[in-house]
Amino acid sequence: MNMAAAFLHLPRNSLGRDYVVGDIHGAFSLLERALAHIGFDTVCDRLLSVGDLIDRGPECPRVLDWLQRSWFFPVRGNHEQMALDSDPASAPSRTLQRMNGGAWLLQAGPAERKDYLTAFAAMPLAMEVDGEGDGRLGVVHADCPGGDWRRLRALLEGAATVPPALIQAMLWSRNRLCLGDAAPVEGVARLCVGHSILEQPQRLGNVVFLDTGAYVSGRFSLYDAAADRIVVYEEGSQAGG
Ligand SMILES: [Mn+2]
Question: How far apart are the first and last CA of the chain?
């Protein structure tokens, strides 16, 4: 893996707002309506994402177009990682991919498949955004293993390769949520994660859980970083208002 891509640092957005959105899973049209609802301005606002842009949902091939948008900053989810780790020549791998909602990628031709995988490989595993003063925001798909953001950053920036066990923990862990662990993650003011579908977004310590299963529930959760506020956009109840 290219180490330059493992950790992304973004400067403070002094011109507009930063939002972090939960797992997308192909629900790009719904996301566009959610962004319109909150008055998202592509000129100055930025949309950060906890990853899992693909699989299970309706419009997965649109991911390539989204990954080219200058205001969109996703980290890698376990679904992008599974795509990178998949082997279309292996029957067990194809079965696993279908089970995880990845049949759409198996339908792509070799050149198109390569375009997807190149784009997924460029997605960082974790991202940090400068805020007011020391108020930095972290974004990772599932969790910050060990609960120390600076240590995680050092591991990602310093290693020749990222250990698979670390990737596994960052992209798959549900420990914090399952244990109700409210111990704050050190080294960040807030950490946004997704990965575990909740009916409503949830906070534990300084960790914000944003996956409200938009592709099945019609409900996107967006964290407004400057306001430290979570906006829930639900299709049907708010779509017209
Ligand atoms: Mn996930």
Answer: 45
Spacing, Cα 204 to ligand 1 middle (Å): 18
- In the reported structure, the alpha carbon of residue 193 is separated from the centroid of ligand 1 by a whole-number distance in angstroms of 10
Q: Could you tell me which residues come within 8 angstroms of residue 108 by beta carbon, excluding any fewer than 6 positions away?
A: 61, 116
Tell me if the pTM is above 0.90.
yes
234: tokens are 């639900």
CA–CA distances in Å: residue 153 to residues 23, 100, 147, 157: 22, 29, 11, 6
Would you say the C-alpha torsion 48, 233, 66, 144 has a positive or negative sign? positive
Q: Render pLDDT for 115-154 as a digit per residue (tens, 0 to 9).
A: 999 999 999 999 999 988 778 999 999 999 999 999 999 9
The protein residues having their C-beta less than 5 angstroms from ligand 1 (an ion) are 52, 77-78, 195
Do the beta carbons of residue 140 and residue 169 sit within 8 Å?
no
- Between β-strands 18-21 and 46-49, what pairing exists: parallel, antiparallel or unpaired? parallel
CATH code reported for the domain at 7-240: 3.60.21.10
Active site residues: 79
Ligand 1 centre to CA of 115 (Å) is 21
- CA–centroid distance, 236 to ligand 1, in Å, is 25
The domain segmentation of the chain, as residue ranges, is 7-240
